[in-house]
């Protein structure tokens, strides 16, 4: 490793690790200019930093580092059973970022990655070339599936590049999921009806307890409203629903608040779904011992962890009954375990 700058204190990402291979990539050059107050350290491969043994996910969560790297191999992965593919046979998620600025207690990334740091793959042109091979058929790509790309958009510009790419291909549909309040970078972009911006919403009490470093409910609703007003298709996702003693009051109040601020007819869709995860990711969460979410007595079926059937049914019934007071059932998507 070689340090190539000695800066003063930056606000975000005190250290920028850069693979030698991408030093001359235009995206890297832009990022280094943006991070003029960060220590830039040249490395051979991102795994030297990201996969280092004995890292503490919890400790790194409060002081994340950014790694710029070249992705070798596939960017696209088949959509998983934990998410909605909206009927597309071609449904993929794109992995152009590893890690997330936010720090949710229920996040499976804690079980997936050895580090809380963020890796940005700068060779997005290779991702686009891979996507293009699928576009003879309608294709849905979730560009923010195991990260939150909009949260980091002001630094990376990746979402805008995806939107420009999608503009050129009639068969390409994008879902951009976020908890960010950051709609500003997209304000100047012409809305594309094949793109859905999807905000994850939780009651403010749940945000404060489990979704650390994320924007407040009010800020998310404001960003979603701005996107709707600008002409974007917006899906609001009350998903994952976290079951607590106050579950009913909290989520009913959330739905009331949502539809007070966002007229139902302006909403593209509403998604409802309770917490679920793979059993192996839950095992990793338990080892970290950070949150009561990891220790709930879940039911397990085919490697998938969910709330016991009666609770899962109660969650869905409660939310559906409330939501349908405002929005037709046809606009509601629900996630349910397949029996
Ligand atoms: S916003 Fe999503 S990806 Fe980021 S920490 Fe939370 S659950 Fe994980």
If you had to describe this structure to a student in words, what would you say it looks like?
The chain is built from twelve helices and 19 strands. With 339 residues, it is an alpha/beta fold. The chain has one domain: Alpha-Beta Horseshoe (pyruvate-formate lyase- activating enzyme). A hairpin with a 2-residue loop joins strand 17 (299-301) and strand 18. Helix 10 (247-261) runs parallel beside helix 12. The radius of gyration is 20 Å and the shape is globular.
Name the features:
pyruvate-formate lyase- activating enzyme; 339 residues; single chain; globular; 23% strand; 19 strands; binds iron/sulfur cluster; six-stranded mixed beta sheet; alpha/beta
Indicate the topology.
Blueprint: E1 2-3, E2 15-19, H1 26-34, E3 39-43, H2 47-50, H3 57-61, E4 66-69, E5 76-78, E6 90-94, E7 97-98, E8 103-104, H4 109-112, E9 118-121, H5 124-132, E10 139-142, H6 153-156, H7 158-167, E11 172-178, E12 195-200, H8 204-210, E13 211-212, H9 217-230, E14 233-241, H10 247-261, E15 269-274, E16 276-278, H11 279-288, E17 299-301, E18 304-306, H12 309-323, E19 332-335
Parallel strand pairs: 2-3, 2-4, 4-9, 6-10, 10-11, 11-12, 12-14, 14-15, 15-19
Antiparallel strand pairs: 1-3, 5-6, 7-9, 8-13, 16-18, 17-18
Helix pairs in contact: 10-12
The site of iron/sulfur cluster has 10 residues, from strand 8.
